[in-house]
Amino acid sequence: MWTKGLTYSTPALQSSAVALLGRGCLRGVHSRRSIRMWDRVQPSLWHPLASLEQSLMDVEVMAQRVFSPRFPPFAPFAPDTLPKLHHDDKEFFKDLPIKRPEEVTKATLKAAAPEYSASEKKGVDAALDTNESSTGAEGTIPHPSFTSYSYTYSTVLDHSGHRIGTSRRRYEDSTGRLKATHEREIDGKNLKTVWQRSNTQDEGGHETVCSSGSPDEFEKEWLVTPFGRAEDEELAKWMEERERGVYKAFGIEYNSDEPKQNEMTNEERKVVEEVGTERKEKIQEMSKRQEEETTSPEYTS
User: Fold this and answer.
1) Is the dihedral of CA 205, 211, 217, 221 positive or negative?
2) pTM
3) Separation CA 31–CA 230 (nearest Å)
4) Max mean pLDDT range (36-40, 129-133, 281-285)
5) What is the pLDDT of residue 33?
6) Which stretch of DSSP H or E encloses residue 93?
7) Where is the composition biased (Basic and acidic residues) (predicted)?
8) 3-state DSSP call for residue 130?
9) Of the candidates 23, 13, 32, 50, which has an alpha carbon nearest to the alpha carbon of residue 224?
10) DSSP letter, residue 251
11) What radius of gyration, in Å, describes the C-alpha atoms of the chain?
């Protein structure tokens, strides 16, 4: 049960914070606070962060097993595919236009299928030429013409033996309906953020709940985990790219405030060098693959 109360402190994590929080990490913290909550759920940031988390998995075989979203979520799976990873499928999809296979009747399928006359064109051209909107008529429930769903789960053990986990779910369809969750775990203590938007006109809302203690206290502990350090560096780079684009649009020279190499300590330099060229290439490859797998072909350029 989710509660809000006083939390315990993890001594090992707090002691490591002093050693690992350098200027580079602090720059990431600043970026984390500057980025709006709804920017975090945009595909341009969501997919790279999910791929980054996957790249930190210690065992490649484990990464292949958990990087397997089931859609629809009620599809059967083999006994050895870690069913506990899908324990919250019902909770996530309960308010989305997704039904179990046995609930989809012939009448439902017939009502959802478009009707064409014999003189109408067939295939993709016919679908593009129709003037019907996926949002449906006024007073009716909108039926999405396509949906996008992604699910990732990553877990590692830090140098102190603490189990660190992160899972992401993101659903979006052509009606503008969006629901996303990001749940993080440190030795059984969880922080869950949920985003929801009903349609394109809806501003949407989000909430963050912590299983024990306050979200701020959890964020401090998360900051010094392998996922937290890598995420802050990625957020800092994402923020820098956006700032660079704004400066370029106005014809202003952009100078990054990234700390010089000779101003960093050996401990800070070691953290920064953990993400090498090979990892960056893998992150880009996985991010591109995930976006291709979760986007309908007709909506790609």
Assistant:
1) negative
2) 0.59
3) 13
4) 36-40
5) 53
6) helix 89-93
7) 257-292
8) coil
9) 13
10) T
11) 22
